[in-house]
Amino acid sequence: MIGIWHALVDQPRMKLQFKIEKKGSYTLDAVMEPLPAPLTFTNVAVEGNHIRGTGQVFWNPGDELVAELDFQEDSFTGHVYIPSFGTIPLQGSRGRGPYMALSLINEVAPYRKGLVIERCDNEIQEAIDQLLAKMSLEEKVGQMCQCQASNFSFGSEIVSDPPEKLVAEGRAGSVLGAFDITRVFELQKIAVEQSPHGIPLLFNADVIHGSQTIFPIPLAWSCSWDMEAIKEACAIAAKEASASGTVYNHAPMIDVSRDARWGRVSEGAGEDPYLGSLIAKAQVEGYQCDSLFSEETLIACLKHFIAYGAAEAGRDYNSVDIAEPTLRNVYLPPFISALESGAASVMNAFNIYQGVPVAANKYLLKELLREQLGFEGVLISDYGSVDEIRIHGYAKDEKEAALKAVQATMDIEMVTRSYEALPELVREGKLSEQQIDDAVRRILYLKYKSGLMDDPFRYVRPEKEMEYHFSKEHLQASLELARKSIVLLKNDGVLPLVKDAGTIALIGPFADCKDLLGPWQFTRYGHETVSLYEGMTEKGFAEERLLVARGSGVNEPLEGGIEAAVAQARKADIVVLALGESSEMSGEAASRMDIVLPEPQQRLAEAVAATGKPIVLVLTNGRPLVLDWFEQHVSAIVETWFLGSQAGHAIADVLMGDHNPSGKLTMSFPARIGQVPVYYNHFNTGRPLLEANKHQKYISKYLDGPNEPLYPFGFGLSYTSFAYSKVKLDRSRMRAGETILASVEVTNTGTAAGEEIVQLYIQDCCGSIVRPVKELKGFRKVSLAVGESLEVTFNITAEELTFWTPDIGYTAEPGQFKALIGASSRHLQEAAEFELLD
C-alpha cells in the first residue's frame, strides 16, 4: 500500500489523493481537489491491508476526520468522513489519477478570442464612458459587489443568494475563492452570456506565498534579505495562479509587525519599515511584472491599509491606537513604496484609527491614500469589513455602513451585501451617482487593463496549469529561497553535521511531518511536501543511522511518546529535535497569548535534554518564540519557519553543511513574553537603561529580566565568521544634495566560504520630535571566501535622514547623526558621527 493513490468522487465532484509511507511507522497524508484543502491524519493504524487514519481539518478542528481504506495490489476501497462534507465512499487505484480539467482544454478553446491588442488608457476611458452610459444604477452597483465562488466558507456564514444567481443578474462583479479552474469557466460563462451587459468577472484569491508550488512564508523569505529571489517567488506564484483563472491577488500583506502574539506576522516582512518597503516593492513587481495585460500576472492588492500590525495585545481584529507620526514613519513607508511600484489595488485594515473603522475612514482612505498619495486604483474591503462598520458601532445599520464606506471611496465590498442599499441611498440624495460612477470606473479600468473585457476567458488556461503547477523549475526556485530563509540562531560547534559521524535521532512532531507549508496556502500538492526525514534520507543516511520518534504531538502528549523518544536519543550520537507550531497556529485569527512551544513539546525537550546528548533544535513556526530555555539547554538552534514544498531538502542542506546559512532575523525574538512588543528601532526614554546605571532603580527596566530581546533584528549566524573594521566616513559634514560615503572592511575569518548581510543603521541624535535609537537605512549582501576581505560602502544622503514631523511634514532636519555598521541591530561597530548642515 506504500505510494500515492487516488479516488474520483461524483458527488461532490472531487478527486482525493492519498500518500502512504512507512518510516518505522506508517504515515497517511491526503488532499482534496479541486478544493485544495489538506487532510491531516495524526493517528494512523495498519492491520494487514487495512489502514485507518484519524485527524482534523483546519476549518472544523472540533469534528474528527476519519479514513478507512482497504488495499489490493493496484486498487483500494473504503470511505472517508470529512467534516462539512460528510461520509464519502471511495473506490480508487494507484497513482495521482487523471488531470481533472483535461476535458476543459477543448471546451474552452472556442471561447477564446485569440490575439488581443492592449488598449491605451485613453481608449480604455472612452470605452468605460460608453459602457457606463448604458448601465442602470443597479447594474453599476453590481460591479461593486463581490460574492464567494460557492456556499463553502472559511469565515462566518454570509447571507446571500447563490453565486450563479448573483452573477446572472449582474449583482456581482468579482468572485472570491474559485479554486477550481472549471468553476472559473462556469461562472465566467454565466457573466458573459447571461448578465445584463456581459461584463466579465474578476476572480480574486489570496495567493500569499505560492499558488501550487509553495514558497516560504513571507516572514521567512524576508529573512533572506534577497529582493530578487522574493520577486521571482511572486512571479512564479502569479504564473501558476493566473493559469487557473485568478486575476486579482489579495496580496502582498505589507503591515509592519512588532508584536509576535499576532498570528499574521507570518504574512509580513517583520518589524522594520525600511526593509519592509523594499520587500513590498519586490512583491508588487513580482506579481504584476511589467504589465497587467499579461495573462501571467496578477493584480497586486496591498493590505492592510493601515496599521493593522499595531492591534492591541497582538489580538487579531483588535483596536489600534497610535499617533500620526507613528502612522507616517512606521506603518506608511511600505505602502508608499508599493504604490510607487504601481500596485493596482489596496485593501483596508479591520481596525479603527482615531475612533473610526478604516473601512469608513475618510481621512485615511480618501484624504491620505487617494488625495495625498495619489492612489487611483481599486480599493476593496477586507472580508465582511463593510458590514463590520455597523458592528464597531460607527453605523446604525447596514445601509448607513454602505453609505460611509462609499463616502470613504471604498469601491468593492467583499462578500457581504451592504452595498445593495446603494441605489436607494442615491435616490435619497445621500450619495451622488457620480460617486458610484467613480468607483465603477476604477473597477472597469482593471477589467480592460487586464484584457478581460476583450477576452473574458484568456486566463482560463488548463494547458498551462499542467505545465506550470508544481513544475521542476518552480520547485527548484522554492528550494533555493527556502535555503536562504533559514536563520542559524545558535551553534556551539555541532553544526554542520558530519555525514559519517554516527547515528542521528530525529525526534519531535516535525521529524517526519508534512505540515511545513504554513498558513494561507491552497495547494493540491501538500501531500508531496518534503519532510525533514525525507530530506535527511536523501542525504544518504541509512535507515539504521536515522532513528525516528515523534515523542509528542504539536499540542497533545502521545501515550508512551516521551519514553520512546528518550530510548532513541540514548542510542544516538546526536539528536535533531524538530519542534514548533502547526500551520493553524499562525496566520489570520491565530493570535497567541503565550508565544512558547506547547507544553507537551517542552516536556519532550526536557526529557531528551536529560540524556546529555548534544541537541540541534530545528524550529517550524510562523512567529518569533520565547526560546530562553532552549538557548540554555541545546547546542544549536535552527529557525526554519514554514519553508514550503521543498522544506525538508532545504533544512537538510543546511544541517549537513551543503548550504551555509545566511538568513538574518526581520523580527526580534523576545527573551520573555512580558517584553512583547519588542523591536530594535524604539525611542529612548528619559531614563534609558545603560551599562553604567543598570543597578539603579528609577530607570526604564524590568525587575525580573532584560530589556533587550534574546535574538535581535538583523541577527543570524553562519558556519564561518566575519570581522568588521571601524566605520570610516569620507567627510563629517554635508548639505542637502550631497553624499557621505560610509564604509567598513569585512573579512571572512572562519574556515568556510560564506555570505554576510552587512547592515547600515543611522541615529538622528536630536530632532523636532523624538527619533528612534537607530534605524536601518541600508544593507549589502557579500560573499567571501576564506580569508577574503572586501570594503563595503554605503551612500548617505538627505533621503536616509528624512522623516515625517507634524509641523513640517517630510523633512531632513539639520543636526548631528551617527552612522553604525555591523552584523545586526545589536552587533555594530563604534558609531561615526556626521552633521547635516542648513
- Assembly of the depicted chains: single chain
The biggest beta sheet is recorded as: 8 strands, antiparallel, barrel
Radius of gyration: 27 Å
Mean pLDDT: 96
Helix content: 25-40%
Runs with pLDDT <50, length 5+? Answer: none
How far is the first residue's CA from the last residue's CA?
77 Å
Structural class: alpha/beta
Tell me how many strands there are: 35
Number of distinct helices? 23
Written description of the protein model:
The protein is α/β, with parallel strands linked by helices. The protein has an eight-stranded antiparallel barrel. The model has no long low-confidence stretch (mean pLDDT 96).
Brief write-up:
With 838 residues, this protein is an alpha/beta fold. 26% of the residues lie in helices and 23% in strands.
List the helices and strands and how they pair.
Layout: E1 3-9, E2 14-23, E3 25-33, E4 38-47, E5 50-56, E6 65-71, E7 75-82, E8 86-94, H1 104-108, H2 121-134, H3 137-143, E9 145-148, H4 163-168, E10 174-176, H5 181-194, E11 202-205, H6 218-222, H7 227-243, E12 248-249, H8 273-288, E13 299-305, H9 324-331, H10 333-340, E14 345-348, E15 352-353, E16 356-357, H11 362-372, E17 378-380, H12 388-392, H13 398-407, E18 413-414, H14 422-427, H15 433-449, H16 462-468, H17 472-485, E19 487-491, E20 504-507, H18 532-537, E21 546-549, H19 561-571, E22 574-580, H20 599-609, E23 615-620, H21 628-633, E24 636-639, H22 647-655, E25 722-724, E26 728-729, E27 733-734, E28 740-748, E29 754-764, E30 775-784, E31 789-796, H23 798-801, E32 803-805, E33 809-811, E34 815-822, E35 832-836
Parallel strand pairs: 9-10, 9-18, 10-11, 11-12, 12-13, 13-14, 14-17, 20-21, 20-22, 22-23, 23-24, 27-35
Antiparallel strand pairs: 1-2, 1-8, 2-3, 3-4, 4-5, 5-6, 6-7, 7-8, 15-16, 19-24, 25-28, 26-28, 28-31, 29-30, 29-34, 32-33, 34-35
